[in-house]
Automatic annotation (TrEMBL):
<keyword id="KW-0285">Flavoprotein</keyword>
<keyword id="KW-0408">Iron</keyword>
<dbReference type="GO" id="GO:0003995">
    <property type="term" value="F:acyl-CoA dehydrogenase activity"/>
</dbReference>
<keyword id="KW-0249">Electron transport</keyword>
<dbReference type="GO" id="GO:0050660">
    <property type="term" value="F:flavin adenine dinucleotide binding"/>
</dbReference>
<dbReference type="GO" id="GO:0005506">
    <property type="term" value="F:iron ion binding"/>
</dbReference>
<keyword id="KW-0813">Transport</keyword>
<keyword id="KW-0560">Oxidoreductase</keyword>
<protein>
    <submittedName>
        <fullName>Acyl-CoA dehydrogenase family protein</fullName>
    </submittedName>
</protein>
<keyword id="KW-0479">Metal-binding</keyword>
<keyword id="KW-0274">FAD</keyword>
<comment type="similarity">
    <text>Belongs to the acyl-CoA dehydrogenase family.</text>
</comment>
Length: 383
């Protein structure tokens, strides 16, 4: 169990914090208001070798650890929740399944440009009838000669349209449940692969989210990821790690709002003293700080478990569920401390309040996290 980050981790944090403060902060409100994807920021992250943080150098990555990646997501989300999830979806969801389950050829062709940041990645699992019940996938992939023919669609896909490489899940053998699902690597630009309009979201508005539409898309046989029928397990294993990213995003959003609230509470005076020293607020600040610290330990320790190839699925679900639950509490308290000022557009805490909510919903709702945690402890319910 890790109780302290290393000097290298904190040097890395200082570097990405400086970047986020100087390059992301000045445009964060504009991105939110215009629903605009931060192309330039993503380009800069690639230049700084941040898009393949936990992947080996031989695959174009930075060769750093999972904890460093978690810190990167946290620090970006401290300034802008949307940018945090762009990195998380690219590293954890778009790149990881290729790293963990791809052949050497697939890694050379797809992982290397993803890890170098030359290409952006995404993950297509969710469908209108397969949300929490991911096994209800209806998109199909039928093998015809040397190609699978992909038909169907995905919804709520982070990085949709902006990403070049998509890991997509589809049914290859109908009527046998999760064991009939397979994973494929699909490229933007292939005939029949289109995108829906970008959603107009409550928060994380700098991130691109849209539908994927597949109409007779010819996917070469060699783009099957893993074996036929292994797709659901690939999706689940990928989400185990993805949840560390979303937990880090939630932590970053909450940390940012907390810092603004503390600063404001120390300056704002009512009844002749800074409002921070009214016990109602000082206790709030104490509770916020405690929750942040607890969430950070859950996240960093699950990152360390993953790094050391120890089981971490239950721990990452705990981290995601707890960090996103407390994120909502912390941003709510932050807006409360700001009073009417916190309710105004242009205030960071107002944006954090909107950005926070999605963290309890995506990459498995917090209800599903509890299903995952409980099943690790008591097993699945009897049939
Ligand atoms: N790793 C590897 N294998 C796993 C696994 C894991 N973590 N979890 C389950 N499996 C295996 C099981 O062992 C089982 O294998 P067998 O067929 O050999 O028995 C198989 O997968 C089926 O498992 P379950 O019976 O447990 O599956 P289920 O249908 O009951 O579903 C669930 C379980 C946990 C509810 C799952 O459906 C789930 O996680 N749902 C949530 C989906 C989700 O998180 N979606 C997020 C979309 S991505 C996103 O949101 C991205 C974004 O925008 C940023």
């Amino acid at each position: 169990m890790l109780f302290k980050t290393t000097e290298q981790h904190e040097e890395f944090r200082a570097k990405i914090r400086e970047f986020a403060e100087t390059e992301l902060k000045p445009i964060a409100f504009m991105l939110d208001q215009k629903n605009e994807f931060p192309d330039e920021i993503v380009k800069r992250l690639a230049e700084m070798n941040m898009l393949g943080i936990p992947y080996p150098k031989k695959y174009g990555g930075a060769g750093l650890d999972i904890l460093t990646y978690a810190i990167a997501v946290e620090e970006l989300a401290r300034i802008d929740g949307g940018t945090g999830v762009i990195l998380s979806a690219h590293v954890s969801l778009g790149s990881y399944p290729i790293y963990a389950f791809g052949t050497e050829e697939q890694k050379k062709k797809y992982l290397v440009p993803l890890a170098k940041g030359e290409k952006l990645g995404a993950f297509g699992l969710t469908e209108p009838n397969a949300g929490s019940d991911a096994g209800g996938t209806e998109t199909t992939a039928e093998l015809v000669g040397n190609h699978y023919i992909l038909n169907g669609g995905k919804i709520f896909i982070t990085n949709a349209g902006k990403a070049d490489t998509y890991v997509v899940f589809a049914v290859t053998t109908p009527n046998i449940g999760t064991r009939g699902i397979s994973a494929f690597i699909v490229e933007k630009g292939w005939k029949g692969f289109e995108f829906g309009d970008h959603y107009d979201k409550m928060g994380i508005r700098s991130s691109a989210t849209a539908e994927l539409i597949f109409n007779d898309v010819k996917v070469p046989k060699e783009n099957l990821l893993g074996k036929e029928g292994q797709g659901f397990k690939i999706a689940m294993a990928t989400l185990d790690g993805g949840r560390i990213g979303i937990a880090s995003q939630a932590l970053g959003i909450a940390q940012g709002a907390f810092e603004h609230a503390v600063e404001y509470a120390k300056e704002r005076e009512q009844f002749g003293i800074p409002i921070a020293h009214h016990q109602i607020n000082s206790f709030k600040i104490a509770d916020m700080a405690t929750k942040l610290r607890a969430a950070r330990f859950l996240i960093y320790s699950s990152a360390e478990l993953k790094e050391h190839h120890e089981p971490y699925g239950m721990e990452s679900a705990m981290a995601k569920q707890y960090a996103s639950d407390i994120c909502l509490e912390v941003v709510n308290d932050a807006v409360q401390i700001f009073g009417g000022n916190g309710y105004l557009k242009g205030m960071e805490v107002e944006r954090a309040y909107r950005d926070a909510k999605i963290c309890t919903i995506y990459e498995g709702t917090n209800e599903i996290q509890r299903v995952v945690i409980a099943s690790h402890i008591i097993g699945k319910p009897p049939k």
